[in-house]
Amino acid sequence: MHTFHMSFRECMIILQDVAYQLGLPIDGQYINGCLTDFVRHIEGGCLAWVWFEELLGVLPPANCIDKFTMKCTWFQETFSELPQGADNGTVSRYARVYIMMLLSTQLFGDKSGTCLHVRWLPYVARLEDMGQYSWGSAALSWLYRCMRCLVNRNVVKLAGTLQLL
């Protein structure tokens, strides 16, 4: 447990706060490996962008890609509205996109707020397994990490799950 000394008062956020405020599970499998080795998918050794195209049916244009991130605007333009009469495969693709956007912008956002990372592909690949992970503990860990960076005087923006503050 960490206590953060903010200008307005001390702040302590615990797992129960995450579960109550965000409704995220705090029990289950831990989120592992998505921040380190996402160049290749572990099962089958598929390149990340090839896997991205297999799961979502389209690749972002080269000007929207920066290493392992893509622009949010491209995601929003491409997947803004589910087509009428969409089949199950299309609905699954749109669900994956929506979840990736939530993960990248709301729970595990960076300071830019304009990019989505492909690190979430292993988790959205099997939609039926999404509820088995401890998303709450991962979100809290990410917020702690981001708040710890605030001790640097050069940091002017805060990232993380700011709803908890």
Automatic annotation (TrEMBL):
GO terms for biological process: meristem maintenance. It comes from the Eukaryota. Residues 2-165 form the Aminotransferase-like plant mobile domain. It holds the Pfam family PMD. This is Aminotransferase-like plant mobile domain-containing protein.
